[in-house]
Amino acid sequence: MKKLCGIVIILAMTSCAQHLSYTPTTSYSESDFRDINDEDILKAFEAAPQLKLPTVIAWYKMGVDSLVEFIRYTDSTTISRQYVIPKALIEGYPTPLFNSPYGYDYGYPRSASINFKAVRLLAARAKCDLVVLVSSQFAEHRHLNNWAWLNALLIPTLITPYYDVTYKYRGELFVFDVRNGYLYRQSQYTDTKSAARLTVWEVEQMAKEKNRVMMRAAAEYLQNELKELFAKAP
């Protein structure tokens, strides 16, 4: 009887929790905002768009998945050159040895602050006109359904479809002028999907599939946002 109660308690504690498959590795550094004064605010107000095509883009990946790679595209009429700012130069540590889309690499920090001024400086050194930051986040929340009560028998735990799962994805794109910091565009894509009656063997594979589908949809939306910006450029 004690073993039976223990199994039910463990399932209740582990299966209903939120499982973050991966989170952005970076956030803005507090130092970017700590020393802001009236002169900085005035410069921000005076900053004006100066986008001319074709332009040179510097990309920076704030997440750990491949969203930025699917957003990038080639178009000689609007983009003359592209440069990817290495994360190690901004965040101070190397990329993971195993490029897992779920960020489970041991010793790889889940989050680190970035100095946006340093990002602009590196973009300027690469002679870029725009700096594009891409952030992403994927999460899953597992719920127990009515099949979960069969798990008290232990053996059905391996074959019972006792999981219902909700998935959420968020992708963001920020486009700044390298010279004066003017914000040309900030776009966000969010999506929620679900899957019902999954076994313990199906949960991980389904998360990968949902991540792939939602990331591709986010990439298409954000890429169109970037193309729309260029279409409106003089």
Characterization of the model:
By secondary structure, the protein is α/β, with parallel strands linked by helices. The protein has a single domain (2-231), classed as Lipoprotein like domain (Double Stranded RNA Binding Domain), CATH 3.30.160.150. 32% of the residues lie in helices and 30% in strands. The chain has helices at 2-15, 31-34, 38-46, 67-71, 87-91, 116-125, 203-231, and strands spanning 18-22, 26-28, 55-61, 79-84, 112-114, 130-144, 163-177, 183-198. Strands 1, 3, 4, 6, 7 and 8 form a six-stranded mixed β-sheet that branches. The model is unreliable at 1-17 and 102-109 (pLDDT under 50).
What features would you highlight for this structure?
single chain; 234 residues; alpha/beta; Double Stranded RNA Binding Domain; six-stranded mixed sheet; two-stranded parallel sheet; 7 helices; 8 strands; 32% helix; elongated; disordered N terminus
| Overall SS class | alpha/beta
CATH 2nd-level architecture: 2-Layer Sandwich
Q: Overall mean pLDDT score?
A: 80
Shape summary: elongated
CATH topology: the name is Double Stranded RNA Binding Domain
**Rg to the nearest angstrom?**
22 Å
Strand content: 25-35%
Order of helices and strands: HEEHHEHEHEHEEEH
Describe the biggest sheet? 6 strands, mixed
Integer tally of domains: 1
CATH class: Alpha Beta
Q: Report the end-to-end length measured between terminal Cα atoms.
A: 75 Å
How many E strands? 8
- Uncertain residue segments: 1-17, 102-109
- Helical content class: 25-40%
What do we call the CATH homologous superfamily? Lipoprotein like domain
Please report the number of helical segments: 7
